[in-house]
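Reopening this ticket.

The earlier resolution said the output was attached, but the attachment link was broken on my side. Pasting everything inline this time so it's all in one place.
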Amino acid sequence: MLSQVPRTRMYVAAAIAAVVLVSVAVVLVLRNPFVPDAAGSDSTVAAAPSPTATPSEKESTSSSDSEDDETGKSDANRALGLKAVATTSPGVTARLARIDSVQATASLPGEIGGPALAITVKVKNQTGKKLDLALGVVNAYYGPERTPAVSVASDGEVPFPASVGDGQSAKGVYVFQIPEEARPVRVELDLGNGADVVVFKGRPQR
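Inline output:
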């Protein structure tokens, strides 16, 4: 019995020492900023998230896509009405003077005869100098899908003159094959030389 007493005390002392060592280890882990767990948490915070649109950006994008084109701004994305007067550059205005329904006759490769629109575009120059129209281009589209209309240049088309003097106006007539049931019609005018592309959109009377 006497030989067992020291051994029991030895066990108790070992247990107490183990508890002390565990406590010291816990304190060191909590105070040491360089342990693996702390480093792992730091690296997670520093990782940059992939760029995504904020809710406001998403809302602005979807709203611009759903807007009607006829908002009164003459640019490539928004359109004026067919009877509007557009400013392509300072001192230069343009409008669709006439839109006539015609039966076009195709005579050149790629042209399609049949129902068409003859669109007369009028440009007025008030810049104080001669205006170059040699690079002027007119395109037309139809339907909700904006299908490109085929030009029938051989039947009644009269392009813009090479230039127009200050204080004067010039006209060009452009014929496009467009089905009678096609609505709406979109006409884009680009006079070149850095002028804004103006867009007219609407439902012309046949």
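Reporter confirms the inline version is readable. Confidence is low (pLDDT under 50) at residues 1-5, 26-30, 33-76. Residues 4-31 form the longest helix (28 residues).
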